[in-house]
What does this fold into?
Amino acid sequence: MTAAPLPPQPVLRLSGISKSFPGVRALSDVQLDLYAGQVTALIGENGAGKSTIVKVLTGIYQPDAGRIEVDGAQVQFPTADAAARAGVTAIHQETVLFDELTVAENIFLGHAPRTRLGLIDWVAMEAQARALLDRIGADLDPRLTLRELGIASKHLVAIARALSIDARVVIMDEPTAALSHKEIHELYELVERLKAEGKAILFISHKFDEIFRIADRYTVFRDGAFIGAGAMADVTEGQLVQMMVGRSVDQIFPKRAHNIGAPVLTVAGYSHPTEFEDINFTLHRGEILGFYGLVGAGRSEVMQALFGITKPSKGACRIGDGVAVIRSTAEAIAQGIVYVPEDRGKQGAVKGLPIFQNVTLPSLSRTSRGGFLRMAEEFKLARDYTRRLDLRAASLDQDVGLLSGGNQQKVVIAKWLATKPRVIILDEPTKGIDIGSKAAVHDFMAELAAEGLAVIMVSSEIPEILGMSDRVIVMREGRIAAELTGSDMTPERLVRAAAGIAEAA
Amino acid sequence: MSDASHTPRIIPDRLTSPLTRALRSWEALLVVVAVAVFIANSIASPYFLDAWNLSDATFNFTEKAMIAFAMAMLIIAGEIDLSVASIIALASTAMGIVMTAGFGTPAIVATGIGVGVLCGALNGFFVARLGLPSIVVTIGTMSLFRGISYIVLGDQAFTGYPDSFAYFGQGYVWWVFSFELVLFAALALGFYVLLHRTNFGRSVYAIGNNPMAALFSGIRVNRVRFILFLLTGLMSGIAAVCLTSRLGSTRPSIATGMELEVVTMVVLGGVNILGGSGTIPGVVLAAVIMGLVTFGFGLLNVPGIVMSIFLGLLLIGVIAVPRLIARMRR
It folds into this structure.
């Protein structure tokens, strides 16, 4: 990659940008420079702050601190419209367009050419849309409605829209995620064309091959902080991976004895028509098995199949001694498999019901007699398990919806422990919860394993995966890409397996 | 989160006692309204405070209330059944056919109840099995069931039910206590236990608050939904037996518009129309209030249309007032 000499001044410069949300510091003092006619790759793990910076750039979030400069002059983007008027436009993973409108309408929505009477000049709009589409080499009829187009064509429309507002900065957030091989190559050509027109491009991707193929410069974020930036020509894949994952694991994870016992769950050849294929693994008593992978690698889908939410098309699983086919969540629970879902709000806590009723929901057959509720038993069970998890709440009769995210998570975990499971699956158990609750969840997980429970932890956080797991399975595109144990469990190997990069020589 | 103590904090079971909670509840307010309506009626009409007149008043709500109990559970679970009045029409028509064919009272009653259950099963199949929205399904079956009655009967009517059949709508168990009133009381108790004292009732609340999380907690969500539709059909069938027996005839227009009165009763009883909360005692009180108001207006010779205007305003008021209060507090 031969990078053109850098222009003296970036088109867009962010410096000292910080942004916090309740309990989370999403960005802290980060910087980002984008140059005309250059593609800058923004690299980082899930949760590194990439989407947050995109939202700051497009006026959706207001930074708590920091400067935004366009051509050296300080500006502010109080609204999405202000960012658009300054020439910043984003093409998202799922393009934000309108299916019911035509290609031309989508391109010119909000800034359509007008006639003298102030009405939309349809003839001019169509002609201009055609010109824009020609410019990017897209063979699309501007009169088609968007719903008739495939995802790749929708990207082209989004790009034409970016050109129509005379964007100077184009943000592409994982633009190739849903594209076929051929479409990806067409996109690369388009990016080259935009570069030639002098656009500054921010390219976000997890795929190293395409970053090296297309980017001139890179910027790396980790945990909301700026790690480094420079020219692609001066950096190797290994160096980038190292910057992404860092060297130190700065969180403290509980130390624990590894008393791994007999197999509890054996999964053989689990497959699903679209989500995953040929999943094989064995889980043992007292073990914490980590599942790592990029978003969309199929980890949650495998777990939900084990929990009976979806049915596998092939394969079987063996629990303890018997072979079981799990067809419903009730059967999974009866077999001793429980699942703490990633989406706490929708799938975990029943907001509107009090804490104690949430805890006893899957255990009602034990707290009741002959189908009739026994409140005293329910309170007793809820008391036992919420105390174990160190729940903070005003009373057990309080609505779960009033608790903080971390405490809601504790209620959900308490609910599952109360069923006395053999296998507990935790899907992103600490995502979006505060540090204090995070540590409590980690301690607790270690305690469970020590008591002989088999634990599966799905996580996208490398320190958590490495700090907690005895063994890690890495998934990529619905398949198991690697299984790592002992000294093989390094951040580099995880990232390489997840992204599909060959091992360094 | 910051305190470093490692001894787990003791969380009390409850902060407000069940009694305090009951006194602050919607049901407590309904008791006040019921007493006020009762006093107003006894002042307005000298005929009101008479055991037999009061007994007559109960016929204004007993049949609707039977359906309202099942409807309350359905609405708490986040569903609705607008076909209940049409189920009555179809069940009543079927009873007429069986009666005309020469069968006796037991067969007539069994037919009415059986048709109700079948109608409920059909609604349940569309909603729980095929995953269609219940409001659309039951608007459809509302037309379907009553349509069949109109095809069978046209402008005719079934009359001439056997004398023994009259007991269900006109008979008295003891003194002024009619069969319908006793059945109402028994069903109220039964539904109270079912909704508030069983695992099944708890799963209804869980589904109404968050069907996804309920599913992820091992509740057979669609089975519960199906059973609730079945139960609503069953209650509509029983109501059809009582109403047909009381009127002594079947016309295809029987119970027209009753579905809205049932829904009104449920909502007035404090059941959240969006699902998730509500109680059987609330519905019982709402039934009594609506019965007393109807009866009072009747004694004062207020035309029926005024009654329906009043009910409409009451329904909107019941939904709007708590929200307005909540907004003003903010």
